[in-house]
Design a protein that fits this description.
The structure holds two protein chains of two kinds.
Chain A (H helix, E strand, L loop, with lengths): L10 H12 L2 E2 H11 L8 H14 L2 E7 L5 E7 L1 H25 L5
Antiparallel strand pairs in A: 1-3, 2-3
Helix pairs in contact in A: 1-4
Chain B lengths: L2 H16 L1 H25 L4 H12 L2 H10 L4 H19 L1 H30 L15 E3 L4 E4 L3 H10 L9 E9 L5 E8 L3 H5 L5 E2 L14 E4 L1 H8 L9 E4 L2 E8 L15 E4 L4 H4 L2
Helix pairs in contact in B: 1-2, 2-3, 2-4
Classes of the chains: A alpha+beta, B alpha+beta.
């Protein structure tokens, strides 16, 4: 199973911010969504997901709220803050630049 | 960092610090909720409930480790660790009352001794004199080291010579200590007194509490004798009477006019016990005149 260190450093934060930008959700839903949208390629262990979420919360990028879910169960819902939205834009920008630079290098034709 | 950032993070940090039990309980609930949902999902995929639960736990890694990592993100662990260390230290101290009392006693004595020494050093060496331009004041005396004389008398003529012929100092003022016999208006009494030149008080930046300081005219030998009372003497002998200024008192058999009263703190705040009466000094220039 791939650990977060196998992800490019700092990308887990960006992925979580992006997922929470779509809608507020709890930790379990985030984990499901991550597996679903990345087609199981990015396997973030649940064990590293929660520390990452808590870190984002402490940074003030996401905020948590206890809500009763549709099944009548109290759950902690995370949502993006204004700061988080700004952070996401910044990281997405960086990522775009980095990945396009890398793919340009990779696509150089051998002579 | 930006203030907006603090807006989010400071309440969180405070909460982690002061409502730790609640924060921990919430962390517990959150992970338990996750386990429950993950288990249900595995069961829905057709797994036996026991096995599903095991898998869900496995996915989460060590639950305690995960919790610890989550707590680490709160960044108040260091403060909490410090508090725990302090508690532990206190418990140990309570367990060994003998050691504790010796340690506390040693510390108390050491701190007390240091404070006492510092107070003395401060008062003697460090504390500035309560006078104007205290850093530019110097005290001049004459010595004869071979004979071991540390304070030779200085004559009025010498003071006048220094004042007129030295460029290094802005001004010279002189005083001498003696005792005066006060007679008339009640019992005779002997008081310690200072004899000063008229420029001493302006030089030190000291002003009388009532009345005025001496004038340079009063330095002259033929001038009418003037005196400034100490606050203590004024209260004791004259009952703090405001009308004492201008009155005549007899010192050493000579009539003096009271021109002022010193403040209660005598000179500034320094307790100069010998200033009780202040008499004006004879101008040395008058010495030459017959």
């Amino acid at each position: 199973m791939s650990k977060p260190s196998d992800l490019v450093q700092g990308t887990l934060d960006m992925l979580l911010l992006k997922i929470l930008a779509l809608e507020p959700m709890n930790g379990f839903a985030v984990s499901q969504r991550l597996k679903q949208v990345s087609g199981d390629v990015l396997q973030v262990s649940d064990g590293s997901l929660y520390p990452a979420l808590h870190k984002l919360e402490q940074e003030g990028w996401i905020t948590a709220e206890w809500k009763t879910s549709e099944y009548g169960r109290r759950a902690k819902y995370y949502s993006l803050t204004r700061l988080g939205r700004r952070q996401l834009e910044k990281e997405a920008d960086n990522w775009g630049r980095l990945s396009s630079a890398i793919s340009r290098v990779i696509k150089i034709k051998e002579a | 960092m930006r203030p907006e950032h603090w807006l989010f993070t400071i309440p969180l940090r405070l909460r982690s610090l002061f409502r730790r039990a609640q924060a921990d309980q919430e962390l517990d609930d959150e992970l338990r909720d996750h386990l429950k949902q993950a288990t249900e999902q595995y069961v829905a995929k057709g797994m036996a409930p026991g096995e599903a639960q095991r898998r869900a736990r496995l996915d989460l890694g060590g639950i305690e480790q995960t919790k610890e990592q989550c707590r680490d993100t709160r960044r108040v662990n260091r403060i909490q660790d410090l508090m725990q260390d302090l508690h532990f230290g206190l418990r140990l101290l309570r367990k060994n009352p003998g050691f504790t009392s010796i340690a506390v006693l040693t510390l108390a004595l050491a701190i007390g001794a240091n404070t006492a020494i510092f107070s003395a050093v401060y008062a003697v060496l460090i504390k500035p004199l309560p006078f104007k331009n205290a850093d530019r004041l110097v005290f001049i005396l004459k010595k004869t080291p071979p004979r071991g004389w540390s304070r030779n008398p200085i004559s009025p003529a010498e003071i006048l010579g220094w004042r007129n012929q030295t460029e290094a100092f802005e001004d010279f003022a002189a005083y001498t200590e003696s005792s005066c016999v006060l007679t008339g208006a009640g019992e005779a009494e002997e008081d310690p007194c200072e004899t000063i030149t008229s420029n001493l008080f302006p030089l030190l930046g000291v002003a009388p509490y009532r009345g005025r300081s001496f004038t340079s005219e009063e330095d002259k030998a033929w001038a009418p004798r003037a005196v400034i009372l100490s606050y203590g003497l004024w209260q004791r002998r004259f009952g703090g009477d405001e009308n004492v200024i201008g009155r005549s008192i007899t010192l050493n058999g000579v009539s003096h006019t009271v021109v002022g009263v010193m403040p209660a703190s005598r000179i500034g705040e320094r307790p100069v016990s010998r200033v009780n009466l202040v008499d004006s000094l004879t101008d040395p220039s008058s010495l030459s005149s017959p």
